[in-house]
Write a structure and sequence with these properties.
The chain has about 350 residues and is an alpha/beta fold. It contains 14 helices and twelve strands. Helix 5 crosses helix 6 and helix 12 runs parallel beside helix 14. It catalyses: O-phospho-L-threonine + H(+) = (R)-1-aminopropan-2-yl phosphate + CO2.
């Protein structure tokens, strides 16, 4: 059965399954902020939006770049804003066109797709459950690669690697002349809430990828950014089309950086619910990944293919994220977002019913 490669599109999934879309579907495959965007977005002045639509956007994204640099305490020359993290992944892949790269997996499928699009020779470093980072296994590839893609907190497992582990990889990569691309798209959902931007100045081949889409629930606007050595930023920016980041995205992005209490409240509520869900699901004898963010993997001891559970949930109006296109998972797990308590309870009821079958 051919399923979509990404979550967050229930209508597309249901069409693939030959089922009708209903208003009662709860989409647990979407891992953006379940509480929606900040309140100011609903109150945006239409005149401001029209002005952003009519005028050509700043091709250099000057104001937002400077604010991101200030927020992250890095020079503005080390920031590149993009049309979502996905665009930036493709720009990075182009930087390593026809080169040998490695990907720590399971991981976001766009790394592989982007690298394949630019003819990269790809080494897959698959971590087995419980998906802890094997630094020796990773560094053993450094003699034959030029770049490494790694995601922490990881998508789809939610597992976060330690700062000590990442620093070890960076030190070994620097010696070997290997670039490390660290995807921190979900770092602001972590209870620590601290990314590794401060380390970038110490490592010339360290590229950090961030997204504003997830925390602020603005998937339709598309905003992401890179933090890297200024020489890397210069090279990557050459591949980026002019006016890649539209005027509305730039306008909203500036306001998002003021939403500190929104982020704090989101993280507190997400972690309360994730811990509750983890405990209750484990009591039902499900395997739950040791996630630090707003989603988790769920598996069963006795099943290597969760398509029956996936379809059972679809019939209950619940959309999970399949894992057939994640290397090392191959459909043996489902990924669920952490949502509001009512939605999470609906999922618990369905999974409890499944256990009784």
């Amino acid at each position: 059965m051919l399923l979509p490669n990404h979550g967050a599109n229930p209508s597309i999934l249901l069409k693939h399954l030959g089922k009708e879309q209903t208003d009662s579907v709860i989409d647990f495959s979407e891992n953006t902020n379940p509480f929606g965007p900040p309140a100011f977005i609903k109150d945006l002045n239409s005149d401001q939006l029209v002005s952003s639509i009519k005028a050509y956007p700043d091709p250099n994204v000057t104001d937002l770049t400077e604010r991101l640099a200030f927020t992250n305490k890095v020079p503005k020359e080390t920031i590149l804003v993009g049309n979502g993290a996905a665009e930036l992944i493709y720009l990075i892949a182009q930087l390593f066109e026809n080169k040998h790269v490695a990907i720590v997996e399971p991981a976001f499928s766009e790394y592989r797709e982007a690298c394949e699009a630019f003819g990269c020779d790809i080494t897959s470093i698959v971590l087995p459950p419980p998906w802890k980072l094997d630094v020796e296994k990773v560094t053993s590839t450094f003699s034959k690669i030029e770049a490494l893609f790694i995601c922490s907190p990881n998508n789809p497992t939610g597992v976060q690697y330690t700062e000590k582990e990442i620093i070890f990889l960076l030190e070994e990569a620097e010696k070997a002349g290997v670039y490390i691309i660290l995807d921190e798209a979900f770092y602001d959902f972590s209870e620590e809430g601290v990314g590794l931007a401060r380390l970038q100045r110490n490592f010339s081949r360290f590229i950090i990828l961030r997204s504003l889409t997830k925390m602020f629930a603005i998937a339709g606007i598309r905003l992401g950014y890179l933090i890297a050595d200024k020489n890397i930023i210069k090279k990557v920016s050459l591949y980026q089309p002019t006016w890649s980041v539209n005027g509305i995205a730039q306008h909203i992005g500036l306001k998002l950086l003021d939403e500190r209490s929104f982020v704090t409240n989101t993280v507190e509520n997400i972690h309360i619910e994730r811990r509750r869900m983890t405990q209750l699901l484990q009591e039902l004898d499900y395997i739950v990944s040791d996630s630090s963010v707003n989603f988790y993997l769920l598996g069963e001891e006795t099943r290597i293919d969760l398509m029956p559970l996936f379809m059972f949930l679809v019939d209950k109006g619940i959309i999970a994220r399949h894992t057939y296109n994640f290397s090392g998972l191959n459909g043996a797990y489902l990924r669920f977002a952490v949502k509001d308590r009512l939605s999470n309870n609906h999922l618990l009821a369905a999974l409890s019913e499944w256990r009784k079958r």
